């Protein structure tokens, strides 16, 4: 039997986690260039709720850790492809082979690009974090030596639950930008350009060289190539949660024994066990 | 952000003439005799450039697109005349067009050996095609100037949200102008006039 036992109930562990969580804030931005233009985000957020439950396998499971985005602006800058009339076949030979083509007349010169910024917070973006945490002790020596009970993230995830109508918003903005490029021209000219472009979602997909589900592609772009997912997970789990002790035991540890005696000892053989009810830390008195 | 330049000539164009090419109007002329040809580009009545074309049966190039505006701009750069030279196959089409310019262009082509005129864009010849793309909705009058025959052409309105494909080219035998019912085309659709004898086509948007 161990000499000394510390026991923290699931409720207490949750309360400690809530304090740690409340002190986290996140602000980041990134831009990356691609063959079709560039993309970037500018984000800030804080965390809300979040259920930390103790597992019978000795780990802690963080689930439904809600993210409240204070700001998440997503920007796409697109190099518009040439938008042209003509270029079609006007004379066919035997077997339908084209033998004469109409010259192509392009509406925009100077390779224009358009910049589309989506405020994802306004679109009702919902996202959350989850993780599996493994408790361990870390000893820090020196004049204030101590044992810190820390949590190492074994598995982490950032999930976008709902991006809102991100694609719809992009398409509307693209339409507006094209109309702006042609702002000195009447509606028929704008309608003609939009007719040449065809379905705007297909047009966007062609520009971006994206697969069929544009929403999934944009979600993936935000998470991976732009690094929002890795940045957020690293900042929260490695640099914040992973460095905040759930329990700190000074070494040497002092117990007061009434009426006025003090018992000071150095904890030995620290051990951690987790079950669904509590985290238990035991040690021997050296 | 890159500067945006809208090719305004495309949207301004409401009249077309096979004898004076402007943006969206083209002449396609088949080169059916081997030989070397010299061409002259004329802008608003002034010679602005030249080219040389060799028709060689061994060449696989069957369409030569000449932007007369570009040839006119580059022919006399640096104070010395530059004459671009091209080689095309027998039966190749010479396509004359103006991509982006406010001028009115014509073109003449001579056989270097014989001095005979192979093509004078002022008059369409049998086998020539005059093709236009009308963008602006409205009513137009199409007139064959040598015979004085004409026909009405309606370019339909584009409804907002219409993303249907632009239709295939409308083919018109110039000889039938005046005897056919009025024509209808969509904005952006190519209209191809086929000459079976000498002709000159003008297209004019009707006043409101």
Describe this structure in words.
The complex is a heterodimer of chains A (286) and B (208). Chain A is α+β, with helices and mostly antiparallel strands and 286 residues long. Chain A has six helices and 17 strands. In chain A, the strands form five sheets. In chain A, strands 2, 3, 4, 10, 11, 12 and 13 form a seven-stranded antiparallel beta sheet that branches. In chain A, strands 1-17-16 form a three-stranded antiparallel beta sheet. With 208 residues, chain B is mainly β. Chain B is built from two helices and 17 strands. Chain B has a six-stranded mixed beta sheet. In chain B, strands 2-17-12-13-15 form a five-stranded mixed beta sheet, with no helix packed on it. Chain B is globular, with a radius of gyration of 18 Å. The mean pLDDT of chain B is 91. At the A-B interface, β6, β7, β9 and α3 of A face β1, β6, β8 and β11 of B. β9 of chain A pairs antiparallel with β1 of chain B, so a sheet runs across the interface.
Any low-confidence stretches of chain A, pLDDT <50, length ≥5? none
- Largest sheet entry of chain B: 6 strands, mixed
Q: Rg of chain B to the nearest angstrom?
A: 18 Å
Query: Secondary-structure element sequence of chain B?
Result: EHEEEEEHEEEEEEEEEEE
Q: C-alpha Rg of chain A, in Å? A: 29 Å
Q: Roughly what is the average pLDDT of chain A, rounded to an integer?
A: 91
* Largest sheet: spatial strand order of chain B: 6-8-3-11-16-14
Major protein interface: A-B, 37 and 44 residues
Instruction: Report the β-strand fraction of chain B as a percent range.
Output: 35-45%
* Category from helices, strands and their pairing of chain A: alpha+beta
Instruction: State the end-to-end CA separation of chain B.
Output: 39 Å
The coarse silhouette of chain A is: rod-shaped
SSE series of chain A? EHEEEEEEEEEEEHHHHHEEEEE
Multimeric organization: heterodimer
Concise synopsis of the structure shown:
The complex is a heterodimer of chains A (286) and B (208). Chain A is α+β, with helices and mostly antiparallel strands.
């Amino acid at each position: 039997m161990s000499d000394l036992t510390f026991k923290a109930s699931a409720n207490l562990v949750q309360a400690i986690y809530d304090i740690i969580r409340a002190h986290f804030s996140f602000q980041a931005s990134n831009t990356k260039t691609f063959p079709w233009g560039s993309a970037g985000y500018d984000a800030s957020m804080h965390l809300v709720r979040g259920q930390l439950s103790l597992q019978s396998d000795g780990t802690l499971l963080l689930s439904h850790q809600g993210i409240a985005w204070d700001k998440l602006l997503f920007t796409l800058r697109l190099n518009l492809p040439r938008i042209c009339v003509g270029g079609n076949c006007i004379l066919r030979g035997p077997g339908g082979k084209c033998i004469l083509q109409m010259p192509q007349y392009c509406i925009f010169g100077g390779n224009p690009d358009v910049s589309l910024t989506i405020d994802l917070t306004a679109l009702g973006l919902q996202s959350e974090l989850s993780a599996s945490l493994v408790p361990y002790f870390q000893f820090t020596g020196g004049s204030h030596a101590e044992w810190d009970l820390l949590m190492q993230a074994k598995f982490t995830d950032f999930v976008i639950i709902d991006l809102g109508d991100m694609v719809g918003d992009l398409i509307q903005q693209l339409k507006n930008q094209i109309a702006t490029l042609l702002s000195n021209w009447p509606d028929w000219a704008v309608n003609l350009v939009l007719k040449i472009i065809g379905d705007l979602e297909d047009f966007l997909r062609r520009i971006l060289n994206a697969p069929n589900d544009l929403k999934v592609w944009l979600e993936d772009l935000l998470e991976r190539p732009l690094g929002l997912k890795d940045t957020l997970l690293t900042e929260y789990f490695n640099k914040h949660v992973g460095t905040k002790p759930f329990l700190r035991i000074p070494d040497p540890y002092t117990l007061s024994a009434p009426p006025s005696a003090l018992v000071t000892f150095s904890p030995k053989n620290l051990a951690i066990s987790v079950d669904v009810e509590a985290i238990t830390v035991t040690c021997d008195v050296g | 952000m890159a500067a945006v330049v809208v090719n305004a000539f495309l949207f301004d164009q409401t009249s077309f003439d096979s004898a004076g090419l402007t943006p969206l109007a083209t002449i396609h002329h088949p080169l059916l005799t081997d030989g070397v040809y010299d061409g002259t580009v004329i802008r608003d009545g002034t010679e602005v450039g030249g080219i040389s074309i060799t028709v060689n049966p061994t060449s696989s190039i069957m369409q030569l697109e000449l932007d007369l505006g570009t040839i006119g701009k580059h022919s006399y750069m640096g104070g010395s005349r530059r004459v671009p030279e091209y080689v095309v196959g027998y039966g190749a089409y010479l396509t004359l067009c103006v991509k982006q310019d406010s001028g009115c262009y014509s073109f003449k082509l001579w056989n270097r050996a014989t001095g005979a005129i192979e093509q004078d864009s002022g008059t369409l010849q049998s086998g020539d095609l005059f093709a236009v793309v009308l963008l602006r909705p409205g009513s137009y009058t199409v007139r064959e100037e040598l015979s004085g025959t004409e026909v009405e052409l309606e370019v339909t309105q584009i409804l907002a949200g219409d993303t249907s494909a632009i239709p295939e080219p409308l083919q018109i035998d110039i000889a039938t102008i005046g005897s056919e019912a009025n024509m209808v085309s969509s904005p952006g659709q190519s209209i191809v006039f086929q000459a079976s004898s000498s002709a000159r086509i003008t297209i004019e948007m009707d006043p409101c």
